[in-house]
Amino acid sequence: MSTHTCPLCETDNTDFYYKDKKRAYWKCQHCDLVFVEKTALPSTSAELSEYQLHENNADDDGYKNFLSRLAIPLLSILAPQQRGLDFGCGPSPVLAQLLDEAGHQMTVYDPFFEPDESALEGNYDFITCTEAIEHFHQPRNELDLLNRLLKRKGYLAIMTKRVIDKTRFANWHYKNDPTHVSFFSDKTFAFIAQSWGYSLRLVSNDIVFMQKN
């Protein structure tokens, strides 16, 4: 039995998965999450330094097109004038801007760049989480929070690249970002949907929609 507790389902049924030059990864046999061991989690200051290297902004058409891959299918299922939260919006909340321009009332939250916790006191018709969930050190806690904030029948729209198998993981650039610490598979999202009471739709290889039952 491993001593590395899964940060998603909190079981100890985890096995060594992979090790590179910088850190080791473990895999939960219950929920299928792949995660880094605690000693490899970045400090808050290291996270912020890495995030400040990102150059995503509203004037970058490529970045807007990237986010549109989530925004377009989400807009196709939302009723008009819904209230949404962009959780983990980063320094430039471009997705919130796109959704706001489409007629929805957007609130943003990011622990580093938009840390106003009053955003975490409302109830939302939908929540977006783009390229953020892989940064969660304790994904169970964050998912509990998102579930509390989301209204019944509301949508949780997630963008993150998914784990396929160990061979591809070994050559996967996504794991090389030191702030990426939790990696989800199709099975992991199925576990999340079942555990928190959502219906699951795998929109594409990096986009997942879940509706709260």
Number of strands: 10
What is the strand arrangement across the widest sheet?
Answer: 5-4-6-7-10-9
Could you state the CATH homologous superfamily?
Answer: Vaccinia Virus protein VP39
**Unreliable segments of 5+ consecutive residues:** none
Helix content bin? 25-40%
* Biggest sheet architecture: 6 strands, mixed
Strand/helix succession: EEEHHEHEEHEHEHEE
Percentage of residues in strands: 25-35%
CA-atom Rg in angstroms? 17 Å
Name the CATH class: Alpha Beta
What is the CATH topology classification name?
A: Rossmann fold
Shape: globular
The count of helical stretches stands at 6
How far apart lie the N and C ends? 35 Å
